[in-house]
Amino acid sequence: MTATTTTTGPEPSASPGLPEPVGDPPLLEVRNLTVTYGGTVPAVRGVDLRVEAGQKLGIAGESGCGKSTLALALLRLLPATAKLTGEILLDGEDVLTMKWGRLRAVRWAGASIVFQGAMHSLNAVHRVGDQIAEPILLHSTKTTPAAARKRAGELLEQVGLPAARAQAYPHELSGGQRQRVMIAMALACDPRLIIADEPTTALDVMIQAQILRLIEQLVADQDVGLIMISHDLAVLADTCDRLSVMYAGRVVEEGPARQVYAEARHPYGRALSAAFPRIGDPASRRAPRGLPGDPPDPAALPGGCTFHPRCPVALDSCATEDQELREAGGERRAACVLVNAPAADDSRSTS
Ligand code: ADP
Ligand code: MG
Fold this sequence. Notes:
alpha/beta, binds adenosine-5'-diphosphate
């Protein structure tokens, strides 16, 4: 993979549309990130993100919108066929131009990922305690195997499992327990940012709620940043501070999580929130309104606004005119021609 940009200093200038940075660089700032597979599949197209320490950012979107590609790109974990451009500034340091040794140090200790589907991510033939101890040993030459195993036991307790479960093999654990092990692994090297890609999708609703509360608690206790990825906008609205909604590789809407969920400005955001009603909310007991069709194949994107073929409110011009994110009032932005001009009292308004 290649990066076309060079490392910038600790106080980079703001990219278009993002507020000017004040003081220290944010924990994570992604600028104009693109990922293209095999030269022809633009899976991520010009994404900007920002996460501060202690902040929880949700990334929503249907399957195929580029969420996992984005997550893997943040730590350069994509296959060699993926070409990356843009900037991924972790504490002001560009991940895309890091030397290999530095990148190894940043993985796990700077940022770590909890993948979807813990059964596939854990090694079936190793005890889970040894798997948690492995990154600890990799990252600290001073730590003895016995100390790493002790730390693995402590991490298991931190995620609500008895330390003795370190002796178990993955198949001896339930789906929820395996996902707790994955979270313990992600915490092993005290990362500053945790990226959780559909961490609860394979779990039943009760266990899903327990795991989400655990992640929330860990983020609150340790003042780390969190990026939580899900197709379920209701889950993200409950867990996160801010939300970015992705469609066809782009962020099409962003803002405070509850506002985006309750009253999305982009028709795709509205369709997603209607598809995932809040559990226990009597007002949303009606059958969710489905969104017809599928997201486009990134190898054959429609012209104009990529959402226009599925959009219930598209204008004729949407078939030819692409839309950038624009101010949508308050701290909100949306990439839709129908988004109203910001309210007069919006101090950040630009038009
Ligand atoms: P999501 O996580 O939102 O479901 P993905 O990031 O997995 O989306 O996929 C985005 C798009 O990139 C999809 O069209 C998918 O087929 C394509 N894609 C994902 N991984 C690869 C790969 N290794 N090579 C080529 N295309 C890929
Ligand atoms: Mg995915």
